[in-house]
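Hi F.,

I've been meaning to write this up properly since the lab meeting, where we talked about keeping a consistent format for the predictions we share between groups. The idea is simple: the sequence comes first, exactly as it goes in, then the structure tokens exactly as they come out, then a line or two of notes. No screenshots and no reformatting. I'm using this chain as the first example so we have something concrete to point to.
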Amino acid sequence: MNTASLEILSEHACFGGVQRFYQHASVEIGLPMRFSVYLPPRAAIDRAGGKVPALLYLAGLTCNEETFMAKAGAQRMAAELGLALIAPDTSPRGAGVPGETESWDFGVGAGFYLDATQAPWSQHYRMESYIVLELVPLLAKTLPVDVERLGILGHSMGGHGTLTLALRHPRLFKSVSAFAPICAPTQCPWGHKAFSGYLGADTAQWAIHDASALMGKCANAPYPAGILIDQGLADKFLPTQLNPQLFEAACAQAGQPLTLRRHAGYDHGYYFISTFMADHLAHHAQTLLAG
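Output, unedited:
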């Protein structure tokens, strides 16, 4: 892998560690891609120390690689636990696909963490391959990150990506959690719009990117240590877009331990996420720091 193009855009001291923002020339996407990394004190570059476990965070619609690092308030506890945090962008930028900036829920900022199969999206909109085949190996090669101890968490569209990538690549991710995920995109307007555009009319192709459908096909629990999901009951997207009850039912059928917490008064945003972020970091640390 060519890592010569990995460029530090900025860096900031943060709770004894370092917050960095990177750009690199992506082979899978065919365009420059950005991601952010928080390295805790014991793994900050230019300091002595071994590799640390990490959490990959997938952000939601309209977000980018900065959103989580600026709004979630995760670095303080990550520093204490010794966990690295990684957040990729949510889509390619600058692909020049006609219509890619016309909707906030499709195109730029809305890659849905899958590989598009339909032209013209299929050339650059390859977020699943980017994350699994390129970004994770790049992290392993260039940063003090132990990708053998990698968890995944995300929000909304990123919660969809978290659940589907975890179920599609269970050997890659050791722990899983999500905030207000799109749990059944084949059964909601956001999913119909994204999947028809990126994947075409074949609904069989849609199902392999639907967390509830994927879990429904599991003969046993892919994550025995449990999956954590938090959902706000004042979330305006809950009635039409998110369907956590469908994922809950699929987990029960598969025997997958699931903690699905429903919180009165909380909405879809980062005030909600920051309120419960410590619980999610502790959930991942229990698995990633074991032994």
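Notes:
The chain has a mean pLDDT of 95.
DSSP finds ten helices and nine strands in the chain.

If this format works for you, I'll send the rest the same way.

G.
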